[in-house]
Design a protein that fits this description.
It is a single chain. This protein is of the alpha+beta class. The protein has 2 domains: 58-138, Nucleic acid-binding proteins (OB fold (Dihydrolipoamide Acetyltransferase, E2P)); 141-233, Copper binding periplasmic protein CusF (OB fold (Dihydrolipoamide Acetyltransferase, E2P)). The chain contains 2 helices and 14 strands. Strands 1-2-3-7-6 form a 5-stranded mixed barrel. A 5-stranded mixed beta barrel has the order 8-9-10-14-13. The longest helix has 53 residues, at 4-56. It is elongated, with a radius of gyration of 36 Å. It starts with a helix and ends with a helix.
């Protein structure tokens, strides 16, 4: 018969043999978990760094397309007397093209882009070239205040001169939204071409990017005009 001391010793050995593999598995699992955690942290740090670098290199240019090629274009931006040209790379797969329509956007194809379009381009700079991720085609509006110098009742146009001595011809179309400041009520109300007089001031909005073909650079279809009678200007 086995002595009590031997029984206790045998029990301890059996217990050790059962527990030891579990401890080994736990140790290996813990080490693997630590490695996975460290690797995950490293990947996250690298991803964050890449994202920060990407955002740092993100640029946006606004201007008119002055040159178009198969996979590139040049955008020209004029600020006062200074003109800057930006090289843009277009990728058939990665570059998205949209047209701004009111408060929404409509997807276009690269083939729809043309010289003279007013565009907003975003992307990442690489070797002085912007690799376009998105191109938005929008209207470029010109907003000025001027004085009416001539009215054509037969051809429905106005000739105006701004306070900076810039002259424009405004064609009044059926789509032109016309308003006038009422001299009596001091309220802005809808108006018509017949109420415009030489000497009146006019606040006008025209689209610079969609002028009719054949028109001179200073002639535009009026998008919106606000007439201010001479009584307000003292002229």
């Amino acid at each position: 018969m086995m002595k009590t001391t031997e029984k206790v010793l045998l029990s301890c050995i059996c217990a050790y043999l059962c527990v030891a593999p579990v401890l080994a598995i736990d140790a290996t699992s813990s080490a693997t978990s630590t490695i996975d955690k460290n690797a995950k942290q490293l990947i996250e740090k690298l991803a964050t760094k890449v994202e920060e670098t990407r955002k740092k290199d993100q640029k946006a240019y606004v201007g008119l397309i002055s040159k178009m090629e198969d996979s590139s274009m040049v955008v020209s931006s004029i600020n006062g007397a200074d003109e800057k040209k930006y090289s843009i790379k277009i990728d058939d797969t990665l570059t998205s093209v949209f047209k701004i329509v009111g408060t929404t956007k409509k997807e276009l194809k690269k083939a729809n882009l043309k010289v003279g379009d007013y565009v907003i381009v975003t992307g990442q700079m690489l070797n002085d070239t912007l690799e376009a991720s998105e191109i938005y085609v929008d209207e470029q509006f010109l907003v000025r205040t001027a004085k009416v110098t001539e009215i054509s009742k037969s051809d429905y146009y106005l000739k105006v001169i701004t306070y900076d001595k810039d002259e424009y011809t405004l064609d009044i179309q059926n789509s032109t939204r016309q308003f006038m400041l009422n001299a009596k009520t001091k309220e802005i109300e809808s108006s018509g071409f017949s109420k415009i007089k030489e000497g009146d001031s006019v606040h006008f909005v025209v689209s610079k990017t969609n002028t009719s073909s054949g028109k001179e650079k200073i002639r535009y279809d009026a998008f919106r005009i606000l007439m201010i009678p001479q009584v307000f200007t003292g002229q």
